[in-house]
Amino acid sequence: AIAACTEIREEVAGSPLATAQMLPPFASLYAMQGDFETARSLVQEANTLLGELGRIYTVALAHHDAAVEFLAGEPAAAEERLRTAYERLDEMGEKAFAASTAAMLAHALSAQGRYEEAAEFCRASREAAAVDDLSAQVEWRTVSAKLLAHRGRNEEAQTLAREAVELVAQTDFLRSHGDALLDLGDVLTLGGEPQEAAAAFRAGLELYERKGDTV
User: Which of 132, 131, 211 has the alpha carbon at shortest distance from 176?
Assistant: First the structure.
């Protein structure tokens, strides 16, 4: 995939917008290999190009930027990127894209132990998510499941976490599927079911290995 992106970058070199649009997924590939320096430099380059163009794509870039920071183990940095994007979307009155942004922001807050704030954005995502927006539907379920598990509401938590896994299993998004399985594993661990949790973690690991996501 990195080789393909390198070729694409050469092909679209004459178009700043096309270059800016292909750089974020390019950055995600390097992040999956643990090369965060290269990943961040690509994201910054895209930010610079889009800033010069004055395009709404700067909001979309926040998702890729945050994905790099999640992989780097920096949820606070991911929160910063996502919060700025969410506020901009709110100002614009944009709902569809805001649903997945809110869900990712809830994950970033939950990872920092800020569960009440995370719950607020989780609700916002659930209310805004279209039925066919699988990304948002999966994301709000996984973070909501973890929040419920932390409150000891294990049955509800496991139901939501399993729903998320079933939804993402309909896609070929290996990383998202792996993430949902890891979240299910976390929920099962908090619910005192280590054997089932281990099975979920193992299934997630297999998907990451297929993807080549070494992080």
Answer: 211
> Which pLDDT band holds residue 56 (cuts at 50, 70, 90)?
low
CA distance linking residue 30 with residue 42, whole number of Å: 9
Helix axes 96-111, 75-92, angle to 10 degrees: 150
**Tokens found for residue 86:** 């969410």
Residue among 27, 36, 32, 179 nearest 104 (CA) = 179
- Scanning the structure block, which residue is given the tokens 């922001």? 105
Which tokens go with 115? 């569960």
Q: Do residues 185 and 201 touch, judged by C-beta distance below 8 A?
A: yes
What pLDDT does 95 receive?
A: 78
- Token pair listed for 30: 């390097």
Q: According to the model, what pLDDT value does residue 55 have?
A: 63
* DSSP class per residue in the chain: -HHHHHHHHHHTTT-HHHHHHHHHHHHHHHHHTT-HHHHHHHHHHHHHHHHHHT-THHHHHHHHHHHHHHHTT-HHHHHHHHHHHHHHHHHHT--HHHHHHHHHHHHHHHHTT-HHHHHHHHHHHHHH--TT-HHHHHHHHHHHHHHHHHTT-HHHHHHHHHHHHHHHTTS--HHHHHHHHHHHHHHHHHTT-HHHHHHHHHHHHHHHHHHT---
Any idea of the CA torsion for 181, 85, 80, 132, to the nearest 10 degrees? -10
Residue-wise pLDDT for 59-84, tens only, equals: 778 888 999 999 999 999 999 999 99
